[in-house]
Every structure is written in structure tokens, then in C-alpha cells.
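User: Okay, second chain of the day. Same drill as before: sequence in, C-alpha cells out.
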Amino acid sequence: MKLKPSFLFISLLLIGISLFAQKEGNIWYFGRNAGIDFNQNPPVALTNGQMNTEEGCATVCNKNGKLLFYTDGIDVWNANHQTMPNGTGLLGHSSSTQSAVVVGWPDHDSLFLIFTIDLQASSNGLNYSVVNMNLQNGLGDIITKNIHLYAPSSEKITAILHDNSEDIWVLTHKWNSNEFYSYLVTSQGVQNTPRIQAVGSIHNGFLSNTLGYMKASPKGDKIALAKGFTGLAEIFDFDNQTGQLSNPLLLDPHLRTAYGVEFSPNGNYLYVGYSDSLFKDNFIYQYNLNITSQIAINQTAVVIKHYLRWGRFQLGDVWALQLTPDERIFITRRGLSFLSSIELPNLYGINCSYKDTALTLAGKICDLGLPTFNQSYFRPINIGARNTCINDSARIFLTDTTGVDSVHWVFGDTTSGNVNSSSAFFPQHLYSQGGSFTIQAIYYADTLIDTLTKEIQVVAHPQVALPADTSLCADSLLIQAQSPDPNYFWSTSSIDSSVTVNASGIYWVEVSNACGRIRDSLRVIFDTLVQAQLPASHVLCTGDSLLLAGGPTAKAAYLWHDSLTVNSRYVRNAGWTWLQASNSCGVTRDSLWVDIEQVPSIFLGNDTVLCQGDSLWVDASFSRASYLWQDGASNPARLLRQSGLYQVNVTNLCGIGYDEILVRFDSIQVPNLPADTLLCIGNSLLLDGSIIGPATYVWHDGLNQASR
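Assistant: Same drill. C-alpha cells below.
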């Protein structure tokens, strides 16, 4: 039966997203074996969960709301509540605020990614594992486990759809830093290079400050987080097309702790759970997100609920807040067997209708945490657009078609004529020009009709140009990327349009927009004044040569004294040699003198005999040599006064020379002839004038023998 027109708008308002809500978040497991099934209306408690966790947990269903698996960040249980193969030893922690979140792998219906966060900035940090639901007869198997991304991290993680309604942003926050690490999950998997942004306050101090949830708004336009025992919360604008965070606003109600955060389904309000101090009262605050200044947004704070402390042991304390598929916000009350709720979170102040006992847990107990989800599971039906690039075929679709019978599209491209509209369920449209276009979808679901609009930006594929490779004589270089696109990521991790570098190397920049990514690079070489450097004055041996090297030709130009321009050469002749070296930093010159030397050639003289009292000067001098005589003397020359064999070794860099001389010193001897004597005629007398040693003899008549 058709509804009367007067009831049409009211019906749509009341049903809201419930009619079209995605069902991936329809089953929850959390706390001490507690669970909820939202596939029934009203939802009912589940008691078959095997997970017993203090804080972090995650659950995921298929699009029809059928349970696939759940995890505490360490173990993974399948739909039969059995531990999945390889489903132990994940690197999360059951006492990490958000130990895990599960996201589907885009364009791979059977693959899921489990991102895990370790406890209190421990060394495991952020990791992910891959589940293949086609294995184990549809119960799933972990095929890749604990792929490390970074550490240390706060206990915070959230996931939200990219603006194209297919890719997924996964956001975390580094510890001891104000940096967000945002990973984009595409059909290719987890992009290796995260978008790193320093924005907002630094997360540091006591490790208890790592506690607290991070959430994305269902529409994907804001991010909020709680900062544990600082008692502070923060909210940021988020561009889910570029991943850019901006406009940080600090929420400070001057209380002791901040833990749970959650957005209203329409994104107009933020709810934060605080406590006054350790072992004291608890509060839930509401903030109006239509305010954009820090002072003003704090002034919008409304206390939705003030909990008087039940006792010292934290029984009934407020911890996690989580949006539900039926547009409520459930609230954990530690140690109790029921959940509290905010029944109408889209309404201002106490009109949001706090309910203390919203759902009993059939005897099971809640603790600190509720499951962490891809927050897009709870967003209203919307228009999705992919490939919105000039001259590409843009894919247009509804983000959820559950119950939708038909759709009529208007693409907002008046220049396209009669192809500006379509009644296809999943149409494509080619935008030939860039700019803003408003897409309209009129969709029908049984007796209901509604109209959605979405403004899209059609842009060209990314372009970027860096300067040519350069060599320069300077301390630093400013590299400016020329691109019409605003999203930069450099090899230095900078996200500015330019970087200053001061070391030689290859630098690249990656520019991205909705149409993809492109990268350009350049090589930078920092020169210094090249030094022409020759050795000191050098001595060569006859026939030898000396290799002179100026340096690598890539660094400088060289000019020698004889006009050669090579970077190295041999020298074989005596004389002056000079070298000139030049590069972009200037010109230098050096020179050296080359001597030619030979092996020592020594002559001390012929062997000789001298008279006693005489002396003989012998000289073995040779250039650049050392001397060693037979008696150990080292002087080059010496005066000889004693008989003997004199030997000398003369050594220089070319070899050793040797010579010797025999010298004898004699005294004068007078021949001894007899006294005058008379001889008889016919007789003779033997006269002997010989002396000891060699001598020459001359008699009065010229005879030259020793005796006669």
C-alpha cells in the first residue's frame, strides 16, 4: 500500500539511515564475553562470545550483517567462535584502548585487514595482518601477519572511507609527537608511505596519556580524540579526499581524564566521557561542532550526564562511547551487566535523551572498551564518485543500495547535453572540463522517495615538474616543485611545496590529487673548490717515471704546463711541472720540481803506498746518498793515515755503489854496506844493499839491483 504524501517526509525522517544502513557493524563482541546483535530490532544481547578483554576489540560482518570474525588485537575468533588458523600472536594488546580495527580491502570482497596497536607506546607500535575469508570453508584464515608500519604509537586508531567511497583512510597518532600517521588503503593494499602531519598538541608525558579513543565522524569530515590522563580532548577538520587535518581545537573542561569520544550521526555534536579525578565522579559532555573557535566551542559544552562515583574500585565508571547501527550512542559502565545510551544524539543538550539502562547483557559484563569500527559503517546513505578526472569516465553510485529500487541521476554537467542524466543504477559520466559539479540522485525504495546531492571537484591528473639535475657551489639549495596540485610529499617527509637541502643526493616529490599520484626527482651535487694538489718535489731514478693524478674528471677540468687536459699523466724528465684544476667554485694551481738521479758511481782511487807521516784524502760523495765504511763510519769522505783495505757502500734511492782502496804507509831505510876495504887483484867483494820491503835500487854506475 502506498503511503500518503503527507506522511512521506515524516517517514524518511524517522527511518533515517536505519533503512539503508550498512550492516558490517551489526554484531559486536566486547568486554567479558559480552555481545550484541543489531540485526534484530530491538537489538539483543549475545552470550556466545569467546573474547575476554579489558579494552580494545574489533568486530566485522559482511554486508548482510552476518558475523565474519572478531579480535582483541591478539587473538582472532571466526564466526563459529573458534580461534582462526594463524589467529594468535597479533601484536595488539587487550589493554590497549583501540587494540584493533578491521577494514575491508577495496575491490577484494574476501580480504580484510586487521590493524593493531600495542599497549602504551610499546615497541610493537602499529602493524597489520591480512585475513582471507575464502579459506577454511568460508571461516577465514590469516595469510599475512604482523606487517610493521611504525612505533611508538598512542593507543588510538580510526578508519573512514575516502571521498571516493572505495578507498579507506586509517589514522593513528605517534607518541612523543604531534604527528598523525594516515595510511590510505586502496585496491593495491596499504600504501607504504603514510601521510605524516604535525598538527595539534604533542602527545607525551606519562604513558597513561596514550589512553583514549580516536574517532572519525560518520561523514568523514572531522577527527576527534581523547588524551587520557591529561583530561583533554581535541577535534580537527578532516579532508577525506586528501587526508589533510586542520583547524585543531582543544576541549578542556578542567577534569582529570578523557577517554571515550563519539560523534552524533549527523556530525553536528561531539560527545566526550570525562572523570573528575582518580576514584571520583564521571561526566558525559556534549559539544556543538558548528562552532569554529576554541573559546566558543568550549563554551558550548553541556553536561549530558553526571555520574556520582559508586565506590573506590571504578564500578560503573564511564569509558567507551560508540555509535550504533540504529543511530544511538552506547556507553560502557565498567563492571556492570548493561550499557547506557544517548538515545537521540542528533539533538542538542539534554534533548539527546540519556538512558541509564539501555541494553542488558544477559549476565555478561562490560569493561572499558567497545569495538572499534570503520566509522563509515554508520554514515547516512550518500553519493559516491570515483575517477572524477578530466576526460575519464567517472563512476557514480550510492554508497548503500539496500532496499533501493531505482535511481535517477543528474550529473550537473550542462555542457554534456542529453547525457547529463541517467537512470542506470551505476552510471558513468565523462567530464571534459574541470571545476565544481553538483550531482543529484533521486532514489526510490518501495513507497519512499528521497533526493541526495553531492558536490564533486573534477580535476586534471596530477602534474609536477622539478628543476633539472644541478651541480652547485653552495651550502644549500631551495627546490621548488611546480604543480597546480596542493598535496606534496617529499623524500625528506616534508609536505610543503618546496624543500631546502644541503647534502648531495637524489630528491623526489610526489604530488597527489583525486586522480592519482605522480613523482618527479632530481639529482643535486654540492661542489667545493677543487684543489690542484701535486706531491712535494720529487727525485726519479734514470729510466723511471712518476704518475701524477689530478682527480676524477666529473669533479673538475684540468690543465697541465704543457697544455695537456687529462686528469692524470706520467712525468719522466727533470724540471718544473704545474697543474691547474677548475670547477664551478673556482681555479687552483700547484707545481713540483722533478730531479733525475742514478745509481751511485764511486771511485776512491788506485791502491797506493805512502811514506810514514803522509796522509791520503779519499772522497765517496754522491748526491742524496748515505755512506757505510768497513769500520762503521758514515761520513762521505775521510783522511787516511794508516795502512789497510778501505771499503765503502754508498746508497741512494736508486741503488748502492761500492769501491775499495788498498793503502800502505812505509818508513825510509838506508842500505847497510861494509866499511871501506882493500881487495887483492883478482878478488871480488859481494855488496848487499837490500832492505826490508819493496824498494828500488840504483848504484853509482846505474845498476839497479839490490846486490852486486
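Confidence is low (pLDDT under 50) at residues 1-20.

User: Thanks, on to the next one.
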